[in-house]
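tokens incoming
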């Protein structure tokens, strides 16, 4: 009797994590970039422990240097400007997501484009 109850409780906690909305809205401008959210229950990284810290890992799979910067969403007015970061081809970068966390949806917009554009 205990096993089915334990399985049900585990499933009840897992479903909200699967349904969680993304922390970051993305505008990648056609670049081949992979954006993985860190610091949230369903994401993990074997090199960086960011549990509870909203962050993203950006992997550049394109042949151009990517320039990425966080921008405030229209409803987020207290976010300060984040500096742009350059990510070389076949490289990764981890960036903390600026702004306040809210469970109601994205908290920032990540805009990436080829450097120099």
């Amino acid at each position: 009797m205990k096993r089915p109850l334990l399985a049900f409780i585990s499933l009840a906690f897992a479903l909200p994590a699967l349904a969680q909305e993304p922390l970051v809205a993305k505008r990648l401008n056609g670049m081949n970039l992979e954006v993985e959210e860190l610091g949230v229950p369903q994401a993990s990284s074997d090199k960086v422990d960011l549990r509870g810290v909203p962050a993203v890992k950006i992997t550049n799979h394109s042949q151009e240097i990517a320039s990425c910067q966080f921008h405030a969403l229209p409803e987020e007015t207290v976010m300060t400007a984040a500096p742009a970061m350059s990510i070389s081809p076949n490289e990764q970068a981890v960036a903390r997501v600026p702004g306040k966390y809210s469970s109601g949806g994205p908290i920032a917009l990540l805009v990436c484009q080829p450097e120099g554009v």
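note: Confidence is low (pLDDT under 50) at residues 1-19.
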